[in-house]
Amino acid sequence: MLQNFLCRTIALLLLIFGFAASSLAGEPTDHIRKTTDKMINILHDPVLKNNLEERRKMLRNAVNERFDWREMAQRSLADHWKSLSEEERKEFIPLFTDLLENTYMNRIENYSGDKVNYEDEKVQGNYSLVKVTIFTDKQVEIPVVYKMKKKGQEWMIYDVSIEGVSLVKNYRQQFDSVILSSSYQGLVEKLKEKVAKN
Question: What gap in Å lies between CA 3 and CA 170, rounded to an integer?
């Protein structure tokens, strides 16, 4: 279930990093667009098409600039995060990041680019929501909401909801189930196995 949801989520995230059919002037949206442009340039660079290792590295760097993996990991573990030592947290965050990046990098590299409308942006203090609609090649409309938090001068993504389903909430339910039926270490071992397979 987790694998299928993540597969669909990452594929839709890639669609979000596409050409915008319309745009907003807000800062959070502009920061998403900055990452979007960077990823598209990497994917369309003819030199990098012959150097897959370097292209993959650059794509990861671009994604890392916009996603707050620590915040996502913390929210995904919810109350379990509080009981972790700092060393356990330092181990979990890159594992959590690798789970997404390693498993779905091929999807990123095969991305062709569907159209996106930036529909709305709401800012409240250091938090914002950016709503977009993705139009697939079959003209299916998919609503997506970015949840972002301002850190320094950058707006960082800490959750994405697709068709009303939150990535962080889904992780939280899955992780909580594993921890309660096994242990936190059992979850870590499962994630390590998933990452190693990819």
Answer: 11
